[in-house]
């Protein structure tokens, strides 16, 4: 099950927009090709883990091609158009010359995404195939472990393109339990996130998420689409209305919601957003598990229903608490950022005011200094003029001058006077 994230709005809107039933049907019925090359013992394990599983309905076209490494050169053309290449090796068995040559051909040829499965205990020395394959990328599988099937199927599903996983599960029963578990967990978390988001604006005003109320129609719709995908993954015929009609009495929508809500009464009293999120998750989780069991076996006992409800309730408590804590933490962070932004703005304004005050003070001082300097200069100029006037007034005539200059300097004689008389 995916890790719950309260803000997983990408999955929410994808679920809301997904209204084309035919698109889901085409996705389930698309062609898919998986080529597995490897050693005989490893191929046997891959065949067992991928093909053995719940199978209530007839299987479609076989998508899995098992090819011994020694014959891999003949499958290079298929690899170009395949959806996935699986390289399956036995950790304890060395590769023969023909197998090494086949692995070399495969590693050098155009091929799709690949997964390397190593069955058994890894040896300390570098294996022969490490020249052609990344040893660190290999998935080590203990074939005798109860978890071996989940390890192999998880590696295969993870390496497949997302658009090919539903079709692969429809044709390979071994992939169905893990595919169903992932899908159920993903939609349950998506519905819980939607329910939480509808209450977030009152919980965290800073976020302002544009969802005013959790619409049960949207939650029910996403559950219906999930159930249809689960039916197709389990190999059921693709008629949507028939699948919904046959599953409704089994999952008992209203009963499921009441059971989950009743089991979660008193969860964090006085804080309604947590139970609301938990009910959305738990109700969706119950529907997914019940539908999976029905399409796998055609039977869902009352004891099994109670067990599923108890499991969903336990998970719902944990998931809802985690998601609400994340929302609260995100809201606190948003509030702190907003307050910090306001404080920084105030500090910036104060600093700007202080700087402006310093500039004004500096301008006034400069003006005062300039005025004082101009006054001093004016006073100095006036003083210099006065001093110059004194020097001109106090200057004496020279004692010796020329006759011409002396005659010129003499005053004219009185009128009527004569020379020599």
Polypeptide structure, described:
The protein has two domains: 1-26 and 179-374, no CATH class; 33-159, P-loop containing nucleotide triphosphate hydrolases (Rossmann fold, 3-Layer(aba) Sandwich), CATH 3.40.50.300. The protein contains 14 helices and five strands. It has helices at 9-17, 21-29, 40-51, 76-81, 97-108, 148-159, 165-171, 176-203, 216-233, 240-251, 253-263, 273-297, 302-393, 403-409, and strands spanning 34-38, 64-68, 84-90, 114-119, 139-141. β3, α5 (97-108) and β4 form a beta-alpha-beta unit. α2 runs parallel beside α9. The longest helix has 92 residues, at 302-393.
pLDDT under 50 segments (min length 5)?
5-9, 200-214, 267-271, 334-342, 388-421
Q: Gyration radius, to the nearest Å?
A: 46 Å
| Portion in strands | 5-15%
Element-by-element helix/strand order? HHEHEHEHEEHHHHHHHHH
Number of domains: 2
Oligomer: single chain
- Give the end-to-end Cα distance, rounded to a whole number of Å: 152 Å
What is the β-strand count?
5
Structural class: alpha/beta
Describe the sheet with the most strands: 5 strands, parallel
Number of helices: 14
Average pLDDT, rounded to a whole number, is: 74
Q: Rough shape?
A: elongated
Helix content: 55-70%
Give the strand order of the largest sheet, numbering strands 1, 2, ... along the chain.
2-1-3-4-5
Descriptive keywords:
disordered C terminus; 5-stranded parallel sheet; Rossmann fold; 421 residues; 14 helices; alpha/beta
